[in-house]
Amino acid sequence: MTHFEQTEFSPNPPTSAAFSEHPPEAPSNTYSLEVVSVRHYTDRLFSFRVKRPPAFRFRSGEFVMIGLPSIAKPVYRAYSIASPSWDDEIEFFSIKVPGGPLTEHLQKIQSGDHIWMRQKSTGTLVLDCLLPGNRLFMLSTGTGIAPFGSLVRDPESYEKFDQIVLTHTCRESAELRYGHDLMERTKQDPLVGDAASQSLVYLGSTTQEDSPTKGRITQLIDDGTLFSKLELDAFDPEYDRIMLCGSLDMISDLKTMLEERGFDEGSNNRPSTYVVERAFVG
């Protein structure tokens, strides 16, 4: 497995919080997991990997609730799992929120520290929530790319779809690094690398900094840039399936755009032509 080292891309990583070498026993229905590696991409974004409990099972694209034992009153937040269901480690991709009740402390973790993770995973950004189709679009902003990191490394994605299109929109080019690294790792992956090299395409865009592709994803869809850049036909609800994960504004705008184009939102109980992660949008 590829591990992220904390020193790379972070000349002055944040110092560790007051983590104990012997963390308190985790509450019932909660795992205490050792941090394996941490990588800081920018002053706003970082990823980390933890040891995976042998008994833990999840579907690629699902999320879990995580917290820290070092906080007097543990706070749990929903985090999408960014590693595939077969991986022997669990990866998360997080934003740093100044003063955030969890991320203020979480961003300071180092290898050897522990996090707490609830034992149950759930979510709607899973293949089961979509009807069969030809192309799968995964449209993300910011840390919303995390569940797609899980799905693009899952062989089932390539068994169910002929082509997978991943987009990632951030404010600045440096924030796109996670997506670029994900593509590289996926295409070199011994399990899905061959399929990904043939079927997986990626487009990164920025909203505030000039880059080869600048604009919100809604704009890139509306003016056709997304399709012309990747030499693709426009959305067709008969053949295309779409997953959305990102900011509330992005989700709201894209839901409207898709439904105007004939797409219908799916769920675990009723698969359809597009899905969002309901837990993150209310």
CATH topology of the largest domain: Rossmann fold
Order of helices and strands: EEEEEHEEHHEHHEHHEHEH
Q: How much beta, percentage-wise?
A: 15-25%
How many DSSP H or I helices? 9
Major pleated sheet: 6 strands, antiparallel
Question: Roughly how many Å is the radius of gyration?
Answer: 18 Å
State the share of residues found in helices, binned by percent: 10-25%
**How confident overall, as mean pLDDT?**
90
Give the strand order, joined by hyphens, for the main sheet: 4-3-6-1-2-5
Q: CATH H level of the largest domain: which superfamily?
A: Nucleotide-binding domain of ferredoxin-NADP reductase (FNR) module
Low-confidence stretches: 1-18
Provide an overview of this structure.
The protein has 282 residues and is an alpha/beta fold. It folds into 2 domains: 30-118, Elongation Factor Tu (Ef-tu), domain 3, CATH 2.40.30.10; 127-281, Nucleotide-binding domain of ferredoxin-NADP reductase (FNR) module (Rossmann fold), CATH 3.40.50. Helix content is 23%, strand content 25%. It has helices at 103-106, 146-151, 155-160, 177-188, 193-199, 217-222, 225-230, 248-260, 278-281, and strands at residues 30-40, 45-51, 63-67, 77-80, 89-95, 114-118, 135-141, 163-170, 200-206, 240-245, 274-276. The strands form 2 sheets. Strands 4-3-6-1-2-5 form a 6-stranded antiparallel β-sheet, with no helix packed on it. It has a 5-stranded parallel β-sheet with strand order 9-8-7-10-11, sandwiched between helices. A hairpin with a 4-residue loop joins β1 and β2. Residues 1-18 have low confidence and may be disordered.
